[in-house]
């Protein structure tokens, strides 16, 4: 499970950077943001569940 979360965060950052640097593919910017947010939320949920 943690490996999947790390992969989601990395893919999100890559898509975010590609969306910023390449004007023609603006949808990658939004896709990167969405994937990054999902990865961060998943990481937070896992972190919170480990604390309890």
From TrEMBL:
The chain crosses the membrane at residues 5-22, 28-48. It comes from the Bacteria. Keywords: Membrane, Transmembrane, Transmembrane helix. This is DUF4175 domain-containing protein. It comes from Microbacterium aoyamense.
């Amino acid at each position: 499970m943690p490996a999947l979360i790390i992969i989601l965060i990395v893919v999100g950052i890559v898509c975010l950077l590609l969306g910023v640097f390449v004007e023609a593919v603006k949808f990658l910017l939004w896709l990167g943001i969405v994937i990054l947010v999902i990865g961060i939320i998943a990481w937070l949920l896992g972190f919170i569940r480990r604390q309890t």
